[in-house]
Amino acid sequence: MPSSLDEIKTRIRDLGLRSTGPRVAVLRYMETLEAPISHAEIADALKDLGFDRATIYRNLMDLTDAGLLSRVNLGENVWHFELRQTVTQEPGAEHPHFVCIDCGAVTCLDDVHVDIKTGSSLVAQISEVLIKGRCRKCVA
Ligand SMILES: [Zn+2]
Ligand SMILES: [Zn+2]
What we know:
The chain is of the alpha+beta class. Helix content is 33%, strand content 16%.
């Protein structure tokens, strides 16, 4: 169920941020999504509200720094953003993402649990798991 305007404003203020129009608009829009989205896509979706791309970008970064959003790196520095489900884990480590190497579609793998043991190698911490392959539409 989508949050009310007041709930979103409270969530922003609880983090010590000012509840501004762009921040509320970004969070409200992202609640409706089921997969990470790029800055360009969000800017496009919200441009009718009168926010320019730079404003959206700055606010995406603020909300990411505050821990409300995760930034997913899909390679070649193509960043996508999504709402964080929990704030207890490392950003991006909540669930793996699947990206199709043909069409570029990104999917949240909420039901996939990846258990990577880091004790015996040089790896100290996993911040993000990205799985690449082909989606059903592209192999059909
Ligand atoms: Zn595909
Ligand atoms: Zn996700």
